[in-house]
Amino acid sequence: MGLQILDGSGKGILATVDASGQLSTVSEMHALQHHLSLHDGLVFQVIVTHVNASGGGTYTTLHVRNTSASKLLIVTYIRLQAILDYASSADDFFQIGFDRTYSSGGSIVTPINTNRQSGHAADAIVYNDNPNLTGTFTELDRWYIENDKMMIFNKEGSVILGQNNTIEVRVETLQTGTYYSRMTFMFKDPI
Question: Which three-class secondary structure string do you get for 25-53?
Fold first, then answer.
């Protein structure tokens, strides 16, 4: 008799092999973000609105700092949208970048846990409403605004912040209008 592979449940069920010699298997697969939300309750989201009534300038719509002593903050998704009072131009764009630190002003935003059964709060400090920031802005990405169109930045976990690292979404514009930013992030132990 040849090699037999049992299913591991103790029920004596044998694994099957098809006519081409392939072992038949079944597995459950889901994204890391789903896994961390379901099992650990460590996925969060923030949605902010910035109304620019004064016209030209640079405005920070979202500033996030990882305050966890042991976990990485991993940004998985950013959605941006602008509703301008006038037609957009090459002078109107969103920027995503790193390295500036909070000084004063703005409003604190509480990240929402995407697992409503979890009691975990985010180990992050989040500001909107154009807080005063210090340091040099290191640009990661830029989008030129198309009026009333939604822009999506989906890096699927490749933007990673260590302890006290920051990420910022800001808008450079000559226009009055309303600017929306949404960010989803999770916390994970370093490998």
Answer: CCCCCCCHHHHHHHHHCCEEEEEEEEEEC
Residue 157: its pLDDT value, please? Answer: 67
Residue owning tokens 């846990």 = 113
CA–CA dist 76, 157 (Å, integer): 4
The domain that holds 157 is classified in CATH as 2.60.120
| Domain that includes residue 180, residue range | 42-188
Q: Name the H helices within the chain.
A: 32-35
Domain count, the chain: 1
> Residue 102 — φ and ψ, nearest 5°?
-70, 135
Answer whether residue 17 is part of any domain: no
Cα 115–Cα 107–Cα 71 angle in degrees, nearest 5 = 45
Residues 6 or more apart whose CB falls under 8 angstroms from that of 52 comprise: 59, 171, 173, 175, 176, 177, 178, 179
Q: Would 7 be classed as within a structural domain?
A: no
Q: How far is CA 159 from the centre of its chain?
A: 8
pLDDT in tens, 28-85: 777 877 888 888 899 999 999 988 877 788 999 999 999 999 999 999 999 888 888 7
> CA 111, CA 98: separation in Å to the nearest integer?
19
Q: Does pLDDT of 9 surpass 80?
A: no
Q: Which of 9-13, 21-25, 49-53 has the highest mean pLDDT?
A: 49-53
Residue 79 belongs to a domain: yes
